[in-house]
Amino acid sequence: MLSDLTNTDSEWGSAIAPPWPLRRFTVSQYEQLGQLGILTPEDHVELLEGWIVEKMNHGPMHGYIVRFLSDWLHKQIPLDFLIQCQLPITTNRSQPEPDLSIIRGSHQSFRTRHPFGHECRLVIEVADSSLERDRAKAEIYRTAGVQEYWIFDIPGQSLHRYVFSQAGQRQEETIFSAKEIVSIIIGNIEMTLDLGSIFSDSRSA
C-alpha cells in the first residue's frame, strides 16, 4: 500500500522515491521532529506506517462536509465522548490526522498525549481526490483498534464505511450512495444521517 500513501512534489521532480535507502520514523521520533521545530504545522504532513507523508489540499466542498458533520455530531453525541477535527491520533507506527474523530474520554484525559486508536469510536476522512489514500488508511485504523471508519467520497457522491470488530478483524467496505441513510450508535444514542443532505448540492459546488 505504500504507493497509495506517497505523493509527488514538483519541487523535486516526478520521481515517486529515490533509488536509495529510505528512512522510516517511529512515532516518538516523529513527535521529536515537531518539538524541535524541524516539522511545523505549515509542512502539512502526517506519519503513516513510519513514513512522513504530505497531506492533500482541501477544496471548499471538503470544508463544507467537515463543518456539516461536526455540527451534526456536536448536537447528538453523549457527554462522555469528544469530537476532534484534523488532530492526531496515535498508533504503533502512525500518527494520522483524520478530518474528524469521535473519542471516548474527557478533555483532561488528553492534556499530555494524543488519543490512541482504541479510544476512537469513529474516524472520518473526507476525500476530494484522496480516496485511494484514505482507503489505504483503513488497515492503519483497523490494527490501531478504531471501531468504525467512514470516508466521504466527494467525486463519487458516496460514503465508504468500515466497521471493525472488537477483535480487530478486517471487514470489507460497504458503500452507500447519496440517496441512502446511514446510522451509527455512539454510547447509547443512535444517530441517523441522510446522505442526501450532504451530497445534494455538491455537484454544483
Describe the structure concisely.
With 205 residues, the chain is of the alpha+beta class. The chain is 22% helix and 26% strand.
How does this structure look, described?
- This protein has 205 residues and is of the alpha+beta class.
- It has 2 domains: 53 residues, no CATH class; 145 residues, tt1808, chain A (Alpha-Beta Complex), CATH 3.90.1570.10.
- The protein contains 5 helices and 10 strands.
- The strands form 3 sheets. It has a 6-stranded mixed sheet with strand order 3-4-5-6-7-8, with helices on both faces. It has a two-stranded antiparallel ribbon with strand order 1-2. A two-stranded antiparallel sheet has the order 9-10.
- The N terminus is likely disordered.
Give the terminus-to-terminus CA distance: 31 Å
Compute the number of structural domains: 2
For the record, what CATH class of the largest domain applies?
Answer: Alpha Beta
CATH topology-level name of the largest domain: tt1808, chain A
Contiguous uncertain segments of 5+ residues: 1-12
CATH superfamily of the largest domain: tt1808, chain A
Give the overall shape: globular
Radius of gyration over C-alpha positions, nearest whole angstrom: 17 Å
The largest sheet has its strands arranged as 3-4-5-6-7-8
Question: How is the biggest beta sheet arranged?
Answer: 6 strands, mixed
Strand content: 25-35%
Number of DSSP E strands: 10
Number of separate helices: 5
Mean of residue pLDDT? 86
Helix and strand succession? HHEEHEEEHEEEEEH
Helix content: 10-25%
Please name the CATH architecture of the largest domain. Alpha-Beta Complex
Helix/strand-derived category reads alpha+beta
